[in-house]
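Mods, move this if it's the wrong board.
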Amino acid sequence: MNDASVSSSDAATKVAGLNLDATALLLDVDGTVLDIAPAPDAVVVPASLRRSLLDLTARLNGACALVSGRTIGTLDRLFTPSKLSAIGAHGAEMRIGGEYRTSAVAPLPAALRAKLAAAEKMGILVEDKGFSVALHFRTAPERENELRCFAEATCREFAAENVDVLSGKAMIEIKRAAVNKGEAVRA
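Not the wrong board. C-alpha cells:
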C-alpha cells in the first residue's frame, strides 16, 4: 500500500465505528491499494493484503470491491486465489457477488490498438487491455509531450470510435468514452 495509507490498527478502529450494514467499500487498485510498479505486470500483492481484503469483505457482508482500469481477469490473477467483487476495464466489466457482466461497449478496434502499439518504437511500454490501451512512459519521461500528441492525434483519427485520453501516473490511456469508473461505481 502507498505511503499515505493508515496502519492496520488505525484502519480497524475506523472500520469498527462504521455501520457495516450500510457501508460499501470500493477500492481503487493501482496507486492506492497497490504501489505503482515499473511495469504493470511487476506489481506484487502481499499475502497480508489478500487476507485483509477477504476480512473486510466478510465484515462488510460482501460490500467490498476493487475498482480498476485493469480487466477483471488481470485482477483475479493478481489477487489469486480470491475472486473479489470488482469493477474492471474502467467500468466495462463488473463482478458483484460472483455475478459477472459486461457493458454493451465493444473493445477497441484492432486498427486503433495496432496504431497505439506503434508507441513501442518510441521506447514506450504498451499495455493492451482490450477496452483500453495504456501507454506507460515511466522509463522514458522525456517522451511525455510527444506521446500525448501522438495519443491525441490518434484519438482524432479514430473519432468515430468515441474514445478519449486519460492521464495517469507516468502513463496515458486511450479508452472508450462511454465507460468510466465513476459511472460504474454509481451503478
